[in-house]
Amino acid sequence: MLKRIPTGLRQANGDRHHEPFRQHRPCRPPARLGGVGRAGERFELGYPNTGPPFLGIIAVIALAYCKSMPDAVTAFRLACILTRPLGASSGDLPSQPLEHGGLGFGTVASSLGFPVAIIATVVYATARQTQRLGLD
């Protein structure tokens, strides 16, 4: 159910322009879930202990989807919402200092480390698949 929401934009001639419908992004979590990504800090769980529960919940959603429990859109949206706290906890783990429960690499090293790890994984998977198919 879409509502008519004025955006407050003005056209060049000064008339008020009202957007007829607001487009919602499918992966944008509700605002009240925004602080869930910092659950390790809030509940003093520590960064290593914050990610696995969210990963487990995403796995339960995936298993339920395989058993045809939720429809594809519901499963996608639930999993998409839970990737934010999973990403926050996995991103904070290497960047935070040791005394706060992190790995102590710092923000620059961890920010460079994630793309390097992703690229290395893609290169390895591509090479392995090429080797398996005999295309080398």
Automatic annotation (TrEMBL):
Keyword set, alphabetical order: Membrane, Transmembrane, Transmembrane helix
Family annotation (InterPro entries): DUF347
Ranges for region Disordered: 1-33
Basic and acidic residues bias spans: 13-22
Transmembrane as UniProt keyword: yes
Pfam family membership, one: DUF347
Transmembrane domains' residue ranges: 103-127
Protein name listed in UniProt: Uncharacterized protein
Organism lineage: Bacteria, Pseudomonadati, Pseudomonadota, Alphaproteobacteria, Hyphomicrobiales
